[in-house]
Amino acid sequence: MAEDTTSEEHWEGVAPAANESEAALIAGFLESRGIPARVVDRSFHQTPTESEDLSPIEVGVPAARAEEARKELANRERAFAKDPGSPSDLQTDEGPRDVPPEGDGGPRKLR
Fold first, then answer.
1. What is the rounded CA–CA span in Å between residue 27 and residue 88?
2. Is residue 37 within 8 Å of 27, Cβ to Cβ?
3. How many CB atoms lie within 10 A of CB 8?
4. Is 99:92 a contact under the CB 8 Å cutoff?
5. What is the CATH number for 27?
């Protein structure tokens, strides 16, 4: 059986996140690019605090892949800045899909 060496590697933080959900999305993006990633949550949950220094959440990758991960994240940011999409865009497991306008089988407003 192959030994898991990723737990023994030095991991480096590459992206801060506001919460665990955001961090999980970033980690998933990096993993989709073949870069191992994990959420590092060093927050202290017992006492509420307004200081972000006491509750950092970030995405970590193996230190040897940190530069590659930063480049992928920068490319992602540039692509989003260039074309942020529209409110009618929908992300599916197969990729982006247009949401049909109301009346064409699309979302309906409740009355």
1. 25
2. yes
3. 7
4. no
5. 3.30.70
